[in-house]
Amino acid sequence: MSKACILIVEDDSDILQLLTYNLQAAGYDVLTSQEGYDALNIARSHLPTLIVLDLMIPGIDGFEVCRELKRSPETRNIFVIMLTARGEEVDRIVGLELGADDYVVKPFSPRELILRIRAILRRGISPAASENLWQKEGLRVDMEAHKVTVDNREIVLTATEFKLLVELIHSRGKVKTRDQLLDKVWGYSFDGYARTVDTHVRRLRQKLDSYSKWVETVRGVGYRFKG
To answer: CA 115, CA 13: separation in Å to the nearest integer?
Structure first.
């Protein structure tokens, strides 16, 4: 298997150098950019596997870069980790709403970031499932093809949203706590990141349209798929 290629978008030269060194030491191919428009051009021409994206960069900011990436069919499947000094919860939620797969707040540990990257990249590898196709009424989920249709209309899910939906379907009828979902879908469980699950569930419901009610909130516990 070829090495994953990671694009680092960061205007602080010291942080850029630190990330480049650590990611290369971890065995990844690394591309770098310090400006928003340049980052988009590199992403479109090289199609990296994952982008570590700082929010506060010259040109267009990280929010707009992420929005443009997720808008295009050619780049929408690139994983995105938001890297930001902003600690406000609203900024993290906005990033996830735009399609980012995860976020890390500065100051950060390079080791934690690498663990996050490894966990995200594992989401792109489909484990053997007990069922390859699930369908009820107008909702159809093809596990092998990573394809979801709602009333014969294909909907576009990120890799994380798809894995979240599959995990809920495989556990249908049972309540999954936020920590359990973090562990199964994201591959880690860190204090303070339960809101990540809530944001992805909200985006998943929006895309499921009339079947959104099948993803139930169990107040104070987590989520349950009743379909």
So the answer is: 23
